Amino acid sequence: MPETFVHKFDTPVFKGTVEIPTGIFINGKFVDGSDGGKIDVINPTNGKLITRVSEGTPKDVDTAVEVAQKAFDTVWGHNTPGFERGRLLYKFAELLEQHADEFAAVEALDNGKTFSWAKKADVAMSIGTFRYYAGWADKIHGNTIETSKEKIVYTTHEPLGVVGQIIPWNFPLMMLSWKLGPALAAGNTVILKPSEFTPLTALLAAKLSLEAGFPPGVINIVNGYGSTVGNAISTHMHIDKVAFTGSTIVGRKVLEASAKTNLKETSLELGGKSPNIIFDDCDLEQAVDWTIHGIFWNHGQACCAGSRIFVHAKIYDEFLRRFTEQSKKLKLGDPFNPDTYQGPQVSQQQYDRIMEYIDSGKQQGAKVHLGGERWGNEGYFIQPTIFTETSKEMKIVQEEIFGPVGVVIKFQDDDDVIRQANDTIYGLAAAIFTKNIDRALTCSQKLRAGTTWINCANQLHPQVPFGGYKQSGIGRELGEYALEHYTAVKAVHINLGHTI
Fold first, then answer.
1. Maximal C-alpha separation, the chain
2. What is the pLDDT of residue 158?
3. How large is the angle between the packed helices 124-136 and 172-185, nearest 10 degrees?
4. In this predicted model, what pLDDT tens digit does every residue of 214-266 receive, in sequence order?
5. Which of 32, 127, 181, 441 would disulfide-bridge 133, Cβ 3.0–4.6 Å?
6. pLDDT higher than 90, residue 499
C-alpha cells in the first residue's frame, strides 16, 4: 500500500495539516505502481525532497484503461444522466472551495508559486471551471434536421469513451480542471497524467473525487514520466481521445503517436511567444502594470506570457524607465510570505534552461537592461530580466523561454508592429494597449493569435475559449468550444414508411 504524505504548514498565510496519498489512483483506490518505482518531489525554494510518489508504468496505464472502459460501459456515459454528472461536478467544486487554502498551500509547496496567487488565481479558476462544466452536463444537445417529409433526422452529441489527458507543471490544479471539467461533463472517463514535477494537487484532487461520489474508474490519476506513462497514453489503442498541454516539441510527438496508432481525437494546447504591443496613445501607467503581469506573473512560466514587448518609438524611453522602475520593486522569495510576488522556477531543469537562454541573449549581442542573474543562494530563483537592443534572429526573440525574461523592442508604425508581432511560429495570445478603439480592433483583427487582450493581459475565464493558431496548438480549452473535443456527433435517420 502506498504511504500517505502528511505535511504540517505553519506559515504566515496558512496553518494546517494536509494528508495526501502518494500512490497512483486507479478504480477509486490509491495503489503502488506495478514496478514499485518512486518519483522524488522536490521543493523548488530550496531543492530539498518534499516526498516521493509512486511511479506509474505502461502496465498501469493498461489497467487504468480497462477500469475506465468498464466504468464507461456500466456506470458513466449514457448510464449516468447529465444532471447527475453535473451534480457530482458541482459537489466537487464545493469541496474544492471548502479546501481552497489547503490546495493553495500544496501548490505553493510543490510548484513554488506564491500562496496568494495560487489561491486567487489557480484555485479560484479551478472552482469556477468545475462549476461552469457542471452547468453544461445536461445541456449538450443535438439538432433536428429537415430533409424530406418521409424522414425525421436528428443528431446527438455522444461521449467519446476513454480519454487520456496529460497536463503540465506550471498550473497543476488549473490544468486538471480544464481537462477533467469538459471530459466528465460530456460523459467520458479519464486517465490523467500530472507532471512528475508537480503531482501533489492531482492526488489531493483524486482524494476529493471519492468524497464527491464519482464512481470508481471514472477518474484515474497515473503519476509518471512523459517517456513512459505519457507515451503509453498517446499510443494506446483503446484510448479514444488524448488532450495534451505542454511544449510544441512534445505536442508533435503526441500527434504523431495518434497518427501511427488508432487516429485518436487529439487536442493540443502548446507554446507561445506572445506579443505585447504598447502604442503611443495608451494609458502608460496601465500599460506598465499589465506588462509586468503579462511577463512576470507565475514567474514567467505561462504559455501566454507577453514575452515580446513592442513599444512605440515616441514613448519607448519613458515606458522603459517606468517598466524598469516597477520591475525592480517586485519581491522574490518565500511563496508563503504575503509580500512575495515571484517565487522560484519549478525545477533545476527549468532553471538551467532559462539561464541558457539568458546566456544566449548575452552572447548574441542583446543588452541585459535588468536582471539576468540568479537570485539568492538556494532554490531555483531567477531575477526578473529585461533585454533591449535585440534583433529578430536572436533565440530570446524567437523561442519560448518560459521564465521571467522579456525583450523590449522599439517600433515605428502600426503596419511595422503587426508584421513583427506575427513573425513567429506561435500564435497563442497577444495584448494591445491603446485608447483608440479603431486601432485596437483593427490590430486585433490582423494579429494571428487565438486570444487578444486589449488594455489587459493574461485574463482567463472558464466560459471563454483558449487556444492558439499555428504551432500553438489544435483545438480550444474552456468554454462551450472545449466540449466539441469530448463528443462525437451521430446522425440518426428515421424512415416514416418510405420505400425505395
1. 83
2. 97
3. 10
4. 999 999 999 999 999 999 999 999 999 999 999 999 999 999 999 999 999 99
5. 181
6. no
Q: CB–CB of 122/104 below 8 Å?
A: yes
Show the domains of the chain with their CATH numbers. Answer: 4-270+473-489 (3.40.605.10), 275-461 (3.40.309.10)
> How far, in Å, CA of 276 to CA of 290, rounded?
10
Q: 13-33 pLDDT, tens per residue?
A: 999 999 999 999 999 999 999
State residue 1's pLDDT score. 82
Q: Quote the cell numbers at residue 308.
A: 515580446
What's the pLDDT score for residue 235? 98
Reported as a single tens digit per residue, the pLDDT across 407-450 is: 999 999 999 999 999 999 999 999 999 999 999 999 999 999 99
Q: Average pLDDT in the 101-117 region?
A: 98
Which amino acid would we find at residue 248?
T
Q: C-alpha angle 348/354/360, rounded to 5°?
A: 135
The whole-angstrom separation of Cα 234 and Cα 261 is: 9
Q: What are phi and psi of 31, to 5 degrees?
A: -135, 165
Query: What pLDDT is stored for residue 146 in this prediction?
Result: 94
Q: What pLDDT, on the 0 to 100 scale, is given for residue 209?
A: 98
Query: CB–CB of 427/469 below 8 Å?
Result: yes
pLDDT band at 61 (very low <50, low <70, confident <90, very high): very high
pLDDT, mean over the chain: 97
**Are the C-beta atoms of 122 and 112 separated by less than 8 Å?**
no
Active site residues: 269
- Does the structure show a pLDDT above 90 at 498? no
Is residue 83 exposed (0-12), middle (13-18) or buried (19+ Cβ within 10 Å)? exposed
